[in-house]
Design brief:
There is one protein chain. The protein is an all-alpha fold. Helices cover 84% and strands 0% of the residues. Helix 6 packs antiparallel against helix 7. The longest helix has 37 residues.
Amino acid sequence: MPIMGIEKGRYNAAMSEWLHYIPFVCVLCLGMFVQSAAGFGAGLLTIPVLMWLGYSIPEAQTSLLVATVPQNLWGVWVLRDSIPVSKVAVPGLSRIAFVPIGIAALKMLESLSAVVLRQCVGGIVLVVTITIMVFNPKPRHKLHPVWAWLAFPTSGFLQGIVGMGGPPMVFWVQSHDWNTRQTRGFLFAAYLISLFPALGLLYYSFGNRIIGPGLASIATTPLLLLSTFVGLKFGTWLGRKRLRRITLAMLLLVGLVGLAAPLLSQT
C-alpha cells in the first residue's frame, strides 16, 4: 500500500507539471504564430503574458529567445543571398553592445514587485504598439547614419531589459526601399547575431534560474515550427493588413492589462 501511495504521488506530481507546462507552450506557440503571420509582435505579446503566468522577465526572455532559434536559423539560410555582411555587421554588433546595459538595468528592476514590473512592461508594450500604428515612414534608398546609431543601441537595450528589441530595428528597416527578401533577411540576420550572446549574458547574470524555461522551450520546438508554418499560411489567407489590425488590437489590450496590473491584482 505505501508503494502504491508513492506511485500515485509521483503520478500526481507529473500531471501537475504537465498542466503547468500547457499554458507556457500555448503562449510560445501563439507568439510564433503571430510573428510569422503578421511579421511582428512575438516579444510584445509573449513576454507580458508569460509574466502574468508567473514567469520573471529573464525566464520569459530566455524562453522566447530559445523559441526563435530555429526560425532565425532557417530564415538566414533561406535568404542568405539577400543578406550582405557589410550591411548587417555594424548594426548587429552595435545592438549586442547595448544588451549588457539593458540586462544591468533589468537586474536593478528585479527589486520591484511583480505587479509593478507587469505595469512597466505593459507601458512599454503600449508605447511601442501606438508607435507602430502611427509610424509610416517614406522608404528611402539610404538613411543618415544617426538613425542607425539610434535604432540599434535602443534595440539592444530593450532586448536586455524586457526582451523586446525588435521594434526599433523594424522601424529602421521599414524606412528603406528594400524588397521583402532584403527586409526579412536583414532582420533574421540581425536577430541571430545577438541571440546567442544575449542568452549567454542572461545566464551569466541570472544563473540556473533560466535553464528550466530554456529547456522547456527546446522541448516545444516541433510545435513552434508547426505554429510558424500555420501562421505563414494564415497570414497569406487573411491578408497582412487585416492581420496587422487584429494583432495591434491584441497588443493594445495586452498593454492596457499590464498598466492595470495593480487594480487587477486587488480583485
